[in-house]
Specification:
binds flavin mononucleotide, oxidoreductase, EC 1.3.99.24, alpha/beta, Flavoprotein-like_sf, oxidoreductase activity, 2 domains
């Protein structure tokens, strides 16, 4: 089995986070034929989002910033697996990684990373990785990824003690195995009730063309205006019922708001 993986490194230095990702790469390469590529956000030309909203409203090609955003996006699109790695900075991802998320915010509107595996790798000094892992996993789910439980580690500034190193080795090897099994599995994640409800309510707004026209066209092209979800999957009866009800209510409210204009 061979696969392409891209690791986006959000740390502004070649420090502990990179060390963990390198270790993860070695473990992963023992499991299969993996082409592992790095993108160092500290070294790429990725300007700060200006918040004009052109990507959301008109399309990503209307972004006024000319830099390497599309190259990074294409690397992610061409990969089977994507890693976002970041140290915890003030209980969040680093500004470098947050800027990438903002620059790709149009993907929340027009998700496109289906059938690809995602895993977050987060290091902390003391506290915060749980929240950051959860945050990155949620972003990735919105973007369409199959999200694998992440790797969070507490690391010291100085060289780790042998017992600490043993813990990193074990946790990193386990994470690589998790990632590999997601990567090699053909099954997509089963959507949660929340995901079904979000899909249905967003699609409801698009279906009456109350949404952003660009998003409406995208949903139409993908066949999502008639589908049960973004991709064929098993959705239990109660999620279907609640989803349909929410969709009807959303349409009702949107029509009412339109009439009131
Ligand atoms: C600006 C800054 C903010 C930080 N904020 C946190 C934090 O909120 N929680 C925490 O546990 N560690 C925090 N740390 C520590 C880093 O998360 C930790 O040292 C990390 O392993 C560094 O990764 P690196 O070696 O890849 O830079 C912070 C470090 C810096 C430089």
């Amino acid at each position: 089995m061979s696969a392409k993986v891209v690791a986006i490194i959000g740390s502004p230095r070649n420090g502990r986070t990179l060390g963990i990702v390198k270790q993860f790469e070695q473990c992963l390469k023992k499991l299969g034929n993996i082409d592992f590529e790095y993108v160092f956000l500290k070294d790429v030309d990725l300007k700060a989002c200006r918040g004009c909203g052109a990507c959301l409203e008109k399309g990503e090609e209307y972004c006024p910033l000319k830099d390497e955003r599309t190259d990074i996006f294409m690397k992610m699109m061409q990969a089977d697996g994507v890693i976002f790695a970041s140290p915890v900075y003030s209980l969040q991802v680093t500004a470098l990684l947050k800027n990438l998320l903002d620059r790709l915010a149009y993907v929340f509107h027009r998700p496109c990373f289906f059938h690809k595996t995602f895993m977050p790798i987060v290091t902390q000094g003391v506290y915060g990785y749980e929240g950051v892992l959860k945050y990155l996993a949620e972003v990735a789910r919105f973007w369409g990824f199959k999200t694998c439980p992440g790797l969070g580690l507490t690391v010291a500034w100085e060289k780790p003690l042998p017992a600490e190193q043993q813990k990193y080795d074990l946790e990193t090897a386990k994470a690589a195995q998790r990632f590999f099994s997601y990567l090699t599995s053909n099954t997509d994640s089963i959507p949660s009730l929340k995901e079904v409800v979000i899909f249905r309510s967003v699609r409801a707004v698009h279906s009456i063309e109350a949404g952003l026209a660009r998003d409406y066209r995208y949903y139409k092209e993908q066949g999502w205006l008639e589908a049960d979800y973004f991709y064929p999957t098993r959705i239990s009866w109660y999620k279907q019922i609640i989803g349909r009800w929410v969709e009807k209510q959303t349409i009702k409210q949107a029509l009412k708001a339109k009439r009131a204009l």
